User: Fold these one by one.
Assistant:
Number 1:
Amino acid sequence: MDEFALIRHYFGTAAAAPGVVLGVGDDGAILEPTPGCQVVMSLDTLVAGRHFPDDFPAADIGWRSLAVNLSDLAAMGADPRWCLLSLSLPAVERDWLNGFMDGFSALAQQAGIALVGGDTVRGPLSITVQVSGEVPRGQALRRQGAQPGDRICMVGCPGEAAAGLLAWQQGWHEAPVVARFCRPQPQLELGRALRGRASACIDVSDGLLADLDHILTASGVGATLALTALPRSPVLKDWQQRCGEVPLSLQLSGGDDYLLLFTLPPAQPLPDGAQVLGVIDAEPGLRLRDASGRLLPVLPQGWNHFSESNDD
Amino acid sequence: MDEFALIRHYFGTAAAAPGVVLGVGDDGAILEPTPGCQVVMSLDTLVAGRHFPDDFPAADIGWRSLAVNLSDLAAMGADPRWCLLSLSLPAVERDWLNGFMDGFSALAQQAGIALVGGDTVRGPLSITVQVSGEVPRGQALRRQGAQPGDRICMVGCPGEAAAGLLAWQQGWHEAPVVARFCRPQPQLELGRALRGRASACIDVSDGLLADLDHILTASGVGATLALTALPRSPVLKDWQQRCGEVPLSLQLSGGDDYLLLFTLPPAQPLPDGAQVLGVIDAEPGLRLRDASGRLLPVLPQGWNHFSESNDD
């Protein structure tokens, strides 16, 4: 099967989505923006052996490559609309492609995003997805805007994805927590609900502290987190039973959770299920308060694809 | 320099462009579409050793990675607006990055496209660029629409890029034709001028015959090309003097020219500099007429990244 047949076969199914005037099959897709909306765009690349294990199932790679991008739209409060997919593959393997597109399409359908174009090249296994979303003019969430006194919130449990990856690497593939790494669920509904309410928002891809630091830097503020406020979910407790105490670093610096981290002004009610992890301070820097009330020193460290500490 | 510093340093210069509400530095860019316009999107990936030689200058890789994408916008008749860049790099080398961004930015500035986001990952050298353009509603050019009797046209000389690559591979780096491969010039002005005039359009990336075949298939027609109509430019004649007679296959099947191939209804005047290469027929298939008037058999064959004939 040659490149063009491959594109037609796997990419040619999303033509009839709203706003799609012309999908896959020409030099470009033609799209109709919604009046009154702004367009939010992001793109992310996943490299085999770096962003997912070499022996990762194709369907999970497909899901994940879209999920990490949709999470960016969620963090901006945008509604998913259109995406483009570039696949760099060492060879054309029909089973692998079927699996990949199954995972990709399952999430695309769930999120309501249309695949409108793509490229396939022969090369080392790597996937780049570009997503476009829409948001009513002026309502996109940003990293900038957190104010002293705002609460720092999440819905969900940080560290699950990192624990899932560890379980996978140790051969414990059926661990409940593995799904948190393999099939991250972008918090699109939450992002939409935070429009006009959250003062700042980001998705946690590099680790809780590292991504909080992005909000603090963009907003010109500081923060204090209460370590006792970090939730321990049932799947993390499962992991703990088999693998030992959950290291604090896993929850503070483990990447890949793709949960929204947001700040809420005092007058705003907490969204359902949200945990308050701390508070924004006027004083710059990040402080951690332990169970006894002591303030611990902290370095905002997370997953950083080019830093010495996390790379080979 | 870590990933974030790298992104800020090289990507953070394009914030003030029209329609850019928020550029690099958040989870996504925020863009303001032009009322009355549709958005055209495309993305392409370039892999080292496949889409450019391993010893290619960084600045030429930067130029080229944007040029191949802008050429898709040209083929749709779209005005370039915004782009996103994903860089997969084996290591962070400041000189290489400076060179790459110099070439990329030179063309971005020339074409009036704003870099509004990106991703950098450690991995095998590969570049993915996604571009968005705008076109007045309903005026985008497509591959579909060629009618019997339409002339098949180009502005420029096919085969130059393939000759340039051959010269490069033979160590003749200063050959005038090398620039045609290293720094393809997307025909954006021509694309704009063809709105409402051309019945079909495509950019020649895979080779003249292969890309003409895409028009024929999309339009449900056939074509006859006159081999005597193929132009021989001065730089191709230079090449010929040193390397011998230009093979027909170089002009018919050599890829990477990034010239527009378009069909013009009889009533439409030829754009400046356009050559008529042949005519659209009602009878399906592609026919080549040689100097003596004989029809030659032809297989539409071009550069195809997954076909056996062109791959390792």
Number 2:
Amino acid sequence: MTYCVGLKLNAGLVLLSDTRTNAGLDNIACYRKMFFFENPGERVIVIMTAGSLSVTQTTLARLEEAVEDEMADETTSILLAPTMLQVASIIGDSLSRTRREISEMSRDLSQRQASASMIVAGQREGGDMRMFLIYPEGNFIEATEDTPFLQIGEHKYGKPILDRVITPATSLADGQKAVLLSMDSTLRSNLSVGMPLDMAVIEKNACTVSARRRILEGDEEFSRMSHAWSAALRNSFVEIAI
Amino acid sequence: MTYCVGLKLNAGLVLLSDTRTNAGLDNIACYRKMFFFENPGERVIVIMTAGSLSVTQTTLARLEEAVEDEMADETTSILLAPTMLQVASIIGDSLSRTRREISEMSRDLSQRQASASMIVAGQREGGDMRMFLIYPEGNFIEATEDTPFLQIGEHKYGKPILDRVITPATSLADGQKAVLLSMDSTLRSNLSVGMPLDMAVIEKNACTVSARRRILEGDEEFSRMSHAWSAALRNSFVEIAI
């Protein structure tokens, strides 16, 4: 499985993904699940993926091919599309088509349908920051004031902390802390989500990736935070009267 | 959905279930999901249920019928079975048979199979405390030193807190606090789990229910604990350095 989470805060976007891919317990590999499409200053788009690797890789490859195609226009290239909504729409169409094709190919052998979902976040110069969750069918929902975070993959373990601390007014620093703690809970409770992690921060109106960080297994800062959080939870637990 | 959790601690068993049942969002009802079979001092058995209400109700009705049947013997009545293992086996067989029958009945109308799972916990005089998770197929797993808690239903939201604080040495008081906080996280993050709650404590070797409590919506103690936990989480969050 996978865990990816995105926050749309007033101050900017915070995105975090793990990198574990598995086809059964004995076939575990590390694949990046966060992808950047950028024309710095003009637009920045980040895509995070969950689900069947063949679907997500093919979809990404097609999006990249369309971006590099000299004949590309605003209906095919996400670097030319005039709005983030149309970016989400191009990605949704590509995901849906790829998923259908691959399901069709594997229909003879497997009842299980190949499936995948994505989080798409970004901003175009002059437009608003936007963040979408794209479903396997290609349709999508958008993060709003009321729901400033979106998750894909193994989202349940890490939801309680986000429900409690994230509002649109949360700072970018607190946002990073929250997604890392949300990931920490998920890593502890579910083996199919694994290090290293990819984190990206996009400040409002920067239209470029402001900070990007890969957090490796044994990362000191992350370990310290994870231990401090465990200790804090245990202390809070002890202090609460029943 | 449902959330039920059971702890098998050195000091005894702690069990908690919600009561929400739904068939779609507009058909929500309250049904007890915790059932007691007791011959105080000789044996105590608690069953918690998750899944299709028609399957769990019919299974429970059959177990009760077998207990009351004058012809019942140790292979049919869970109050006569010589060990907790055989209690689990009788319940597993009954669940599996009921599930198959109901799936068969509904096959014409629905692709979705009726399904249900159960947690069975208890002790017989002279035997050990034991706790089992019974799968829809009738097979089961048991709580052990390494895994002193079992969950059914919407288990993911409430797992991180249990992973962090529960060991076999946890006291009964701390166990109750932990399952209530685990339930609190689930209630906050998932609408299909709802109050009131049923909690039971069975002290080791008592072979009877030591304490039983129904926690209603607006219960002062539970609300206070829930608020204190939220405040403690938020404070811990603020204090942790990234």
